[in-house]
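note to self: the first set is below, dont mix up w the second
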Amino acid sequence: MYPEIALASASPRRRELLQQIAVPFSLVQVDVDERRQGNESPQVYVTRLAHAKAQAGAEKLKFSVPVLGADTIVVVDQHILGKPVDQADFSRMMQLLSGRCHQVMTAVALVGQHSSNGCCVSTEVCFRQLSTADIAAYWQTGEPRDKAGGYGIQGQGGRFVSHISGSYSAVVGLPLCETDRLLRNWQEQA
């Protein structure tokens, strides 16, 4: 049904999501500079990273298969919240997210020898009010340490989410509807 691809991501969540829709894939490790350039908007930044990862993977594999790259960011008040560097940084993030809504943007790109396509999906995620005890207990689980914005909606962090508007799978790390469309279009053009 889908073409064989390579995934340029170390995220176990992205692997699980591709397996969920039965995409045949292998992994390719890439090293991309993830620093924000100048005054990039959050959407331009995350889209550039997804394309850079896919392009780096395609070059590494000498364009033998299409390569899927993706990146996810959490945005509140136009500020990007990355992975927490320590508990204090995590607590600051959770206080920013507590009792309000924020955006989760996931960009996905598919790069091959003769074409490159992609998209960016933005989902609104709303948190309930968090107590200091909620925040401290969540940090102790270890889950927030490698997550953009300091939480995983698919894990214990999901208990803080009062509602979302948009794609749940994009918040997890890969928008399945849009990824399906990219892969189908690729196959039709091949």
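second set (the one i keep forgetting abt)
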Amino acid sequence: MARYTGPKTKIARKFGEAIFGPDKVLSKKNYPPGQHGNSRKRKTSEYGIQLREKQKAKYTYGVLEKQFRNLFDKASRSKGITGEVLLQLLEARLDNIVYRLGIAPTRAAARQLVSHRHITVDGKVVNIPSYSVKAGQIIGVREKSKSLEVIADALSGFNHSKYPWIEWEQASMSGKFLHLPERADIPENIKEQLIVELYSK
């Protein structure tokens, strides 16, 4: 499956959650899209529930199937609880950190900023959205890009204190990735244990 570029509300309604951020349509139509979306729901199988959770995680972080599988394999080989490590690896992606720092309003916008060479890691331009940021690295906005309206709009009024694993420095328009986040600090509503069960079959 290639990266989804269609209507975000359609996906949010499928999961019944605003996984891409505030959604006016979802608040009015909180049921799946399509002709039978609002009709009587059929019971979903255990496999269906697990698959749905994996799809939700993939859409939330904008990751393709192969990338997601590779991250899961890496998480399963690491020390710690596999599901939590998987979420930590997703959180450590460069596009996600750019989003968490408030440099971009959405993960899709963050991905675009990275791809278009507006973001630096330790002072060097990195244009790979899936780049895995290490603890202690500094993520900043390239000097030429600091005047971009999209970045200024995203940063205005953004609360940088809500994520304890990153530190923001307004003067230099850069943030430090302090450490991998604890599961309790990751705000995404993802039941990672279901994903582990799915891949363990």
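remember for set 2: The first strand starts at residue 119 and ends at 121.
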